[in-house]
Write a structure and sequence with these properties.
166 residues, two-stranded antiparallel ribbon, 7 helices, 2% strand
Length: 166
């Protein structure tokens, strides 16, 4: 699979687009975000008006995070910041359905922080005679040759077969 269409890339693009969309909302249609800030405990902690906070802090933050995620630059660090930002958003909005919606984004950003924790699946080569699988094509070929000639398996060859995980 192309590195541009892998799971992490698709998560990066999706999360980045969401951050860009939120940045555009902060710049061009900030009323809903301003209302959320005004109705939260954060309003009393801000050194600036909610309108300035939404336009400058949220707009710039979300633009930068979105562009960095889409570009793939410093993905884990950006995703860590995005994770902390989303946790802050969840705390501020404090509405169950909105919190649930944002938790999906939280899991997406956490997935980027954790990265690929599972190794890529190895290509296995299967003997057409007995069905055993090998990581190396050479051993698959040896197994097939032996099986075809002797109609049985060879112990020294089969000990190199991959154990079935199921």
């Amino acid at each position: 699979m192309s590195k541009y269409l892998g799971y992490n890339s698709l998560i990066r693009y999706g999360l980045g687009i969401i951050f860009i969309a939120n940045a555009l909302a902060a710049f061009f249609a900030p009323d809903e975000l301003i209302e959320i800030i005004k109705n939260s405990f954060v309003a009393s902690l801000l050194p600036v008006s909610p309108r300035v906070f939404v336009g400058v802090v949220i707009g710039l933050n979300d633009s930068i995070v979105g562009l960095l995620l889409i570009s793939g630059f410093a993905t884990r660090r950006v995703a860590l910041w995005a994770t902390m930002w989303i946790v802050g958003v969840i705390i501020i909005i404090a509405k169950p359905l909105d919190m649930l919606e944002h938790s999906g984004l939280l899991f997406m950003s956490a997935a980027l922080v954790l990265g690929d924790t599972y190794p890529a699946a190895k290509k296995l080569y299967q003997c057409s005679e007995c069905g055993l699988s090998y990581e190396d094509k050479i051993w698959k070929d040896k197994c097939e040759a032996w099986c075809k000639k002797h109609h049985t398996c060879h112990v020294e060859i089969t000990r190199r077969a991959v154990k079935n995980k199921s």
